[in-house]
Amino acid sequence: xxxxGEKKExxxxxxxxxxxxxxxxYKEENPYSVTMYQDNxxxxxxxxxxxxxxxxxxxLKLTEKSRILDVACGIGRWSDAITQxxxxxxxxxxxxxxxxxxxxxxxxxSSRHFFVGKNTEIATVLQQxxxxxxxxxxxxxALMYLNDADVDTTLQQIVSVCEENALICIREPxxxxxxxxxxxxxxxxxxxxxxxxYRTRNEFYQIFLSAVVSAGFQLMKEDFLFKTDALNNxxxxxxxxxxxxxxxxx
Length: 250
What we know:
single chain, 250 residues, alpha/beta, Rossmann fold, 7-stranded mixed sheet, 3-stranded antiparallel sheet, globular
């Protein structure tokens, strides 16, 4: 079902099943397709990943003191993208099968950690695993799988585990003209039922005002991620990013 303009909730049980099935389709020769899809077009997956990381990694302003929290980390795609020396990378994902793949792919890397947990329970997951605060947060393609109330909760959880000086990078597909909800929509491309909510840029801005800006973060930059139709091959949605930063008052 394709629902335009209306606010409809999606069923998380279906989403959980979807991602377990995605983990079963993992292939070493095209690993990122697990969460970037395009199973039959590995070159597009590589091109999108290369462009995304080329655009966003420099904006993270990473140093050897950077402590990165990757929310909805999947198989650790962004762990692969962070090649410079940092203090720590910690990935959290609700799908146990994806986390297990991430752990195997990062075996032997002492500064890379992966835990199973929901976006709405980030602080608890970190506390249970004796982890502290973070100064860089990645939230890549995750909010589309959450209903509105849990989007707010996720952002509040993220803010609660941020150091005083911190940067948050959010990348989401947005509805270009209107909000679009796919509810139990069969995808020929994926061969499964798919559920997702594509919010507009203005909807996100209102959400961020209450959950992120109110906590002292400023929106430093926002833009469409892909500049060519070849990389963004959807007519109703497009990949968009927001960079927020908070700095301690002197």
